[in-house]
Write a structure and sequence with these properties.
Layout (H helix, E strand, L loop, with lengths): L124
Amino acid sequence: MTRTTRLSGKNMARVNLSNADLQSVDFRDTTLQDAYLSGADLRGADLTGANLQGAHLDGANLAGSTVDGADLRGADLRDAGFDAVASAVGARLDGARGVPDPADHAAPSATPPESAAEPSDATP
């Protein structure tokens, strides 16, 4: 049985957890503003609604983590694998460093939208 460490709703501003093993930790609604998480293993962590403003996440492993509604404004996400997060719906990324351009990772559309379809030249 896998146990999840629950740190949801805690104030952990400016904490130093660099290089820590934080796999699957529940950080929902936790304040991690200006925290040092460089090189931390955050695979599968739940950071939903967390305040990570100005956090140092450079070199962290965010693969499979959830950052829905998280505030990552001004965070350092260089080499953090942000493009491998499970979900980032509504995450605030203004001024964050190291965030991949969504256009670089867009999956090609299997079928064109109807509005882009060419009109037929066939006459009735």
